[in-house]
Amino acid sequence: MPYGDGEGPGDFGTPRVTEGQGRQLRSPRATGAGRRLRAVVMLLTAVALGAMLSSAQALASTGAPVSASPPAISGTAKDGNTLKAAKGSWTGLTPITAAYQWLRCDASGGECVKIATATTTSHKATHEDVGHALRVVVTVSNVEGSGTATSNATAPVAPKAPVKVKAPVISGPAQDGQVLSVGNGTWGGTPPFSYGYQWQKCVLKVCSNIAGATSSTYRVLSAELKQQLRALVTASNAAGSATSPSPMTKKVIPGPPMSTAPPVITGTPLDGQTLSAGTGTWGGTGPLSYTYQWQSCPLLTGECADIPGATSSSYTVQPLDVASNLKVIVRATNSLGAALAPSLPTGLVGALMPSNAVLPTISGLLQDGQLLSAVAGTWTGTAPISYAYQWQLCNASGEACKDIVEALESTLKLSPSVIGSTLRVVVTATNAAGSVSAASAATSLVGALLPVNTALPSISGLLQDGQLLSAVAGSWTGSPPISYGYQWQLCNASGEACKDIGEALEATLKLSPSLVGSTLRVVVTATNAAGSVSATSAASSIVGALLPSNTLLPSISGVLKDGQLLSAATGTWSGTAPISYGYQWQLCNASGEACKDISEAVGSTLQLSPGLVGSTVRVVVTATNAAGSVSKPSAASGLVAALLPSNSALPSVSGVVKDGQLLSATSGNWSGTAPISYGYQWQVCDGKGEGCKSISQAVESTLKLSPSLVGSTVRVVVTATNAAGSVPATSDASGLITALLPSATAPPTTSGTPQDGQLLSATTGTWSGTAPITYAYQWQLCNTSGEACKNISEAVASTVKLEPSLVGSTLRVVVTATNSAGSASAASASTSIVTAILPKNTALPTISGLLKLGSPLSATTGAWTGTPTIAYSYQWQSCSLLKTECKDVAKAIESTLKLEGLLNLTVRVIVTATNAAGSVPATSAITGVIGL
Questions:
Q1: Which residues lie closer than 8 Å to 807 by C-beta, 6 or more apart?
Q2: pLDDT above 80 (res 676)
Q3: Residue 449's closest CA among 481, 425, 486, 403?
């Protein structure tokens, strides 16, 4: 047979005969033989039943425990109530021991987890159990082994409605205009609580609600003078609400003025405008009177000073206020005192912008060389006003005007460049408010002076065939620029009957054989903006014939560099045409001597080759006509130089533009006389690739980027050098150099004891990345496994003080490192579970009431410390008259006890304080003897 609560091997019953069987054994109709037969049958039956009972007992009394009926939980599933577990019925070898483990499950009884320390036959429901169903797992063990059985789930644990423990208290003086604050008080019940407030005014202890006064603070009004105030605090949780009034304040007394909203200034802070000031809003006992004092606050010093005489509610802004802020100080006065309230400052007082009333004008004679003057016109606006001038050149219609560079004075001297145009002047008036420009009307056209000849043109040069004559324009006056035109004329031997020579329109004339035996003259025409005037030179002597003769040595032109093409000029020759020319180039030493013909160099041009570098060259020109030939060498050239390096493709920069990376420079493409060597100079530039400066010692073809370059660009200057010299070329600027994002090389750590009231500290861990790096902290609350972490509001310092709400959880800190590249975060390992502080009794429970049968006794909890919330349970005990032995009073587990059946006994109460850290009992003193 199975055994259960209160049962053991000795509790197994003995076989019993049914009632029907008993009547058969006592039948009066049985004979003697029948009686003997029945006796034999009864004997055999008893033997059989005994054997069966022995077999059943043997089976039930051996082996490991097996559950015959599941454990059961008794009690009401409510926060603060104590539930009890019965282990159920078990079979197996005795003796047995039973162990208990309470489980917290979801509302449907699934997803259960063990409740730490809940390992006895009873469990007091806590705040953490609210909304969860509970089960108990019973493990029964004997020498043969153990067995486990789980109870059915309770209903979800219900919350406990708020219960006032300590009434709220009002702080602050009960005086007109003052602000009162009310605390929440102390409440028992299932957290979390939310709180509502209602302030009341009371007359003779009869209180009524103050409309709209529903926050935790309240400013006292004059209407409440001589009345008392109190606040109703309503605590609410999932189970319901409860309301507690605070004690009433003293009667409200009058108060001095108190600013509740600062004065406000209206109007535009601009020179000449009128500003107005309101009084603001005031508390305190009326009537109140108000005075005003305006102040000026200069921008540079920021210090405000009273404006003399500015003591009304309005103020007209003065020029001296420009570039300052204005504010007003309002003084409120009643019979109890006075108080000051400053307004917020206005924006900076602006000056009145200059405004043109009469346009600028121009006076003076509009002719080349004359002086014009500008009058600024008439202006209004905040003084002082300064004036600037800009003369402009306009077309003949007075339009399309453009500034005349450097014509910035109030006068302008007319120059030939403005002839035929019109002018105007732009006057810019400037004061503290800014600048405004106004333009004059355009003038009439500026006139020029007609050219006048003061010395006739003349002809110079040798009058021989092949010679070059030159015309001198003579002397002229008039408005420049004056341009000159030439017309050569052919005249007879007497200098008469002159006719124009077709196309002879230059200042020089090359004499040709057709002119031999005649004379020449030139007509010069001078022209400017005013018109044209002509003057004619005297006729020359007769033009004579000439054998070839060199009048100007041959010359060489071109760049004396490797690869360049030199050209030979024949020089100047006279003589009768036609004249032909031959060429012979010669190679000379560095001094231009020891010259030798260059084979096959007989053209008018010579291509320089590397073999000529470091030497000089010259050309010999031979002039030939019918009369013969004449040769003349040119002067020797300078030294033939190497070809300077020339860049055809700019240098470039390659690599990742990030702190710590290596950039490489290519030299680009170059031409020029070999060999060419290359030098490098890296430069740092602003973000637009401008304002570049050389980086000290950065003269290699590679550059390692450093933190100082972050946010800038770089470029490289490559200098190519050969025998001809050096030439630099600059690459394009790189992209912006970015910083290296912070990276955690060692995670943050936490230190300190994870217990309610203790201080935890965080280190940043170790980070790499571009300096400077700043650090921010965010503490997180995690579950008991260190997971499902969430930010703790306002816990953003390197330390955090542990609070009761954190008990039963773990914490970690997330450190965010930030530099110019961005931010990166790293989390510390989670702490161990934050523990509560076990309740500690500081004053024993007490019992009050009449020690008389039928009377109620009441128990106080006594005084306790420890992590809130602390819940209390009670167990009354009855004690012997001598107070030597006490026993629990059945079902006496409330804070009150009605005295029944305890005559001539004494009682005491055991109060058990429970919080998240566990439970601690404290026992009251024993009462006196209970009487009738």
A1: 756, 834, 835, 836, 867, 916, 917
A2: yes
A3: 481
